[in-house]
Design brief:
By secondary structure, the chain is α+β, with helices and mostly antiparallel strands. Helices cover 26% and strands 28% of the residues. An eight-stranded antiparallel sheet has the order 2-1-3-5-6-4-7-8. The site of N,N,7-trimethylguanosine 5'-(trihydrogen diphosphate) has 8 residues, from loops.
Amino acid sequence: IKHPLHNRWAMWFFKNDKSKEWTANLKLITSFDTVEDFWGLYNHIQKASRLSSGCDYSLFKDGIQPMWEDASNKNGGRWLVNLNKNQRQTELDNFWLETLLCLIGEAFDDLTDDICGATINIRNKGDKLGLWTRDARRGDATVKIGQKLKERLKIPPKIMIGFQAHSDTATKAGSTARDRYRV
Ligand SMILES: CN(C)c1nc(=O)c2c([nH]1)N([C@@H]1O[C@H](COP(=O)(O)OP(=O)(O)O)[C@@H](O)[C@H]1O)CN2C
């Protein structure tokens, strides 16, 4: 018998083909709801650090598309962890796996309903890990989620991470939007 997960999750892949619409580049790989099927998928696909620049992986709850416009995301935002260039070889894959395990392992406990998913962006200017939540106005819940993420990624206390609302990010494409919260 396989070990069931609390939620069903979907893994998405984004490949940056500039000749196409953004949404046309976003593809569902597969969804799963057991521990065994998670590991089967994880061990089957390329490590994030091996992807070409401009690619993303996203793991979202089944039924939520990894885009701002989805009903579950539109009032939400993301905790953003910016990595420097050296961290692609030293931290990226560990950060991404730890984040995946936080999601499927329900690390956010009673705040699980605030969680939509997570994205890893592979970029030459520096890779980015985002943890997406449902409602940017829920300050206490959002801060608790950010603190748990920092703890699980073992990010030192002096390194601050910021939370940006998607409504800000979507209108400020090209630069990082203002932080609504910081932990
Ligand atoms: C429905 N729809 C069009 C739409 N819906 C979306 O949800 C969505 C986009 N478009 N995105 C587009 O990608 C560009 C790079 O963002 P980036 O996060 O890859 O970051 P970089 O600028 O490549 O570092 C964004 O500027 C935006 O154009 C990003 N995004 C999440």
